[in-house]
Specification:
Shape: globular
Strand order of the largest sheet: 2-1-3-5-4
Strand content: 5-15%
Structural class: alpha/beta
Number of strands: 5
Radius of gyration: 45 Å
Order of helices and strands: HHHEHEHEHHEHEHHHH
Number of domains: 2
């Protein structure tokens, strides 16, 4: 009886162990299957990570074995990348354009004008050499179509170069144009330049460009004497012999402006140094400036007189009142 009972208990235990093993094995397989499924889902990320780790390991090995050479190679690659980036940026960057303002003047062979380039770097410079060797009455060249920076004729004082510049560049003028004399500074040569140093550099560095653009014109001299309030009286009675410009003005006005409305008084600060906007210049058509230049070249008046006719007409040419 006891033996039979033990046999039964042994059988029960064996069955229990078999069931327990079966359940444990099934659970293990399920867990293992889930792990494999997760591994398959994550494979791309794991692959990339492994690839990167492999590259890093190879790089570290090369660095360990290569020493300074490996570091130099890395630095070289980095420098090459930076250089390529810089070069690409430089190529993409447009070339800086010329300043949108210009200084125009005429110079004799004895005039020193290097100061324009060194002291006014934010201005273009157009400096005409005055031809002092060819008499104006035998010149065969036409300054209105000539592209060199020579006046070709020594006639009409600074008005010659001023008008030639406008005629030659009428369609391509910078927005601000300053017409000045070639001397830089100092007294007495630049007595008519209004600042403590009598300096054209100071005048242009302190020029109110916004005013030039809004008003169209500004005389660079503010002191009225000589020039105002009644420097030129074309019909002075009785005439004064030394005032040659007054005697010449009525005919000059009629020839230049093609009318007889000659003002009875012309007044403006002296000395033909001024700034004007390109917009104001083009308020008059090109053929008018060509006519002014032709008159200047052909008039029998002496240079001092013909030049001073324009000295007291520039402000009127550029939209201002006679006085």
């Amino acid at each position: 009886m006891m033996r039979s009972r033990r046999q039964i208990e042994s059988i029960v235990v064996a069955v229990f162990l078999l069931c327990a093993w079966y359940l444990f094995d099934a659970h293990f397989n399920v867990a293992q299957g889930g792990s494999l499924e997760t591994s398959v889902d994550k494979k791309p990320w794991r692959h990339e990570s492994t690839e990167a780790a492999g590259k890093q390991e190879i790089s570290e090995q090369k660095g360990a074995h290569g020493g300074a050479k490996g570091e130099a190679s890395s630095t070289s690659t980095s420098s090459q990348h930076i250089s390529t980036s810089t070069q690409s940026t430089a190529v993409a960057t447009p070339t800086p354009s010329l300043p949108d303002r210009v200084v125009v003047m005429a110079k004799l062979p004895t005039d020193e004008t290097d100061w324009v380039h060194t002291d006014l770097p934010d201005w273009q410079a157009v400096i005409y050499d005055i031809d002092t060797e060819t008499p104006h009455n035998i010149s065969t060249l036409d300054p209105m179509t000539n592209s060199t920076l020579r006046t070709l004729r020594n006639k009409g004082m600074e008005a010659n170069a001023y008008l030639v510049y406008i005629v030659q560049n009428y369609d391509n003028l910078p927005s601000t144009i300053a017409f000045i004399h070639p001397h830089k500074d100092g007294y007495p040569v630049a007595w008519h330049t209004d600042n403590q140093e009598h300096s054209n550099v100071v005048s242009l560095q302190s020029l109110n460009i916004n005013f030039i653009q809004s008003n169209g014109y500004a005389n660079l001299r503010c002191v009225n004497d000589p020039g105002c309030p009644h420097e030129v009286i074309p019909f002075r009675d009785p005439p004064e012999e030394h005032r040659t410009i007054e005697a010449a003005m009525p005919d000059a006005w009629r020839d230049l402006f093609n009318n007889t409305d000659v003002p009875h008084i012309l007044a403006t600060p002296c000395c033909a140094q001024f700034a004007v906007s390109s917009k104001q210049v083009r308020q008059r058509p090109l053929d008018e400036y060509q006519r002014y230049y032709t008159w200047l070249m052909e008039t029998p008046l002496k240079d001092e007189t013909s030049g001073r006719v324009f000295e007291y007409l520039w402000h009127i040419l550029f939209g201002q009142e006679p006085v």
